[in-house]
């Protein structure tokens, strides 16, 4: 099982740059091309919110156009920049985006994907007008009951807001609501192998409720690691990033979720490669290359 995660695209309507600086459409094109070339290919792509920057319908239509070449299924959760109704309108095939306000999710975009070795739970942490995100009684009860239904199945929860302070001051101004209640639920269900989020636009890892929480870098913009409380709010342009989660065994050890940070290094063409691990100008050095004599791969996908 291979799960590729991308996050925080911040698309604007065609031709416009985000914050007059970031060509987020170009970054997404590059990321989709990279996802389609990954070896091994992912089984599924999850997108953890802030698909559009200003929540306009034209931006979601552009998102549909740019994501359409993806070779594998895509599942999304909304972020604080998203307009849920317009997102759902631009992606009519994604029926999970239209939740019944009178149903068990209270109309929030919370759902499960049951088709894979790892169960995926999309959790909507976005409340209109709220930057910091959080949960409520309805979503917490839904999550607890949903986890209770399949206690033996390894599970990954994906959501936009991380339920912890990131130490990036300007991103921590509004605490995640009901994070203690979420932690208690995760603690109760050890099949939760990961909570994985977006929102902070840089890779972060933290132990959470006995599980592991990760944050995926952004597609279109990255936030620098300036941890001074007075750090100004802003971003840098850099290689788009993604997380790739593998449910696998390594050297025969028990199954676990192994996560790689993958940068799309050909961004703006400044990085070259692939370069082999031997001196190409010295043919005798070629014997240093590994791979041939190691026997079967010690890594098995489940
Ligand atoms: Fe974002």
Task: Give a quick set of tags describing it.
single chain; Purple Acid Phosphatase, chain A, domain 2; 6-stranded mixed beta sheet; 5 helices; 18% helix; 21% strand; binds fe (ii) ion
Quick recap of the structure?
With 302 residues, this protein is an alpha/beta fold.
How do the strands and helices of this protein lay out in sequence?
Elements: E1 2-6, H1 24-37, E2 44-48, H2 57-67, E3 74-77, H3 84-90, E4 111-113, E5 119-123, H4 137-149, E6 155-159, H5 179-188, E7 192-197, E8 204-208, E9 211-215, E10 241-250, E11 256-263, E12 299-301
Parallel strand pairs: 1-2, 2-3, 5-6, 6-7, 7-9
Antiparallel strand pairs: 1-10, 4-5, 8-9, 10-11, 10-12
Helix pairs in contact: 1-2, 2-3
Bound molecules: fe (ii) ion.
Fe (ii) ion is lined by residues 8, 10, 50, 79, 81, 199, 201.
Describe it for me?
The chain has 302 residues and is of the alpha/beta class. It has a single domain (2-301), classed as Purple Acid Phosphatase, chain A, domain 2 (4-Layer Sandwich). It contains five helices and twelve strands. The chain has helices at 24-37, 57-67, 84-90, 137-149, 179-188; strands at residues 2-6, 44-48, 74-77, 111-113, 119-123, 155-159, 192-197, 204-208, 211-215, 241-250, 256-263, 299-301. Strands 1, 2, 3, 10, 11 and 12 form a six-stranded mixed sheet that branches. The longest helix has 14 residues, at 24-37. It is globular and about 70 Å long. The N and C termini lie close together (6 Å). The model has no long low-confidence stretch (mean pLDDT 93). Fe (ii) ion (FE2) binds at residues 8, 10, 50, 79, 81, 199, 201.
